[in-house]
Amino acid sequence: MLRFILPLTLALFATTARAEVEIQEVTSPGGVNAWLVEQHEIPFLALEIRVRGGANLDEPGKRGAANLMTAVIEEGAGERDAVAFQTAREELAASFSFSVSDDSFGVSARVLTENRDEALALLREALISPRFDQDAIDRVRAQVISGIQSQTQRPNVIASSTFNAEAFGDHPYGTALDGTIESVSALTRDDLLAAHRNVVTRDRLYVSAVGDITAEELGTLLDNLLSDLPSSAPALPPHVEPATFGGITVVPFPGPQSTIYFGHEGITRDDPDYITAYILNHILGSGGFESRLMQELREKRGLTYGVGTYLVPNDLSELIVGGFSTSNQSVAEAIELVRGEWQRLATEWVTQAELDRAKTYLTGQYPLRFDSNANIAQIMVGMQMIDLPTDYVLNRNDLVNAVTLQDLNRVASRILNPDALHFVVVGEPVGLDANQ
Question: 146 φ, ψ to 5°?
Answer without folding.
Answer: -60, -40
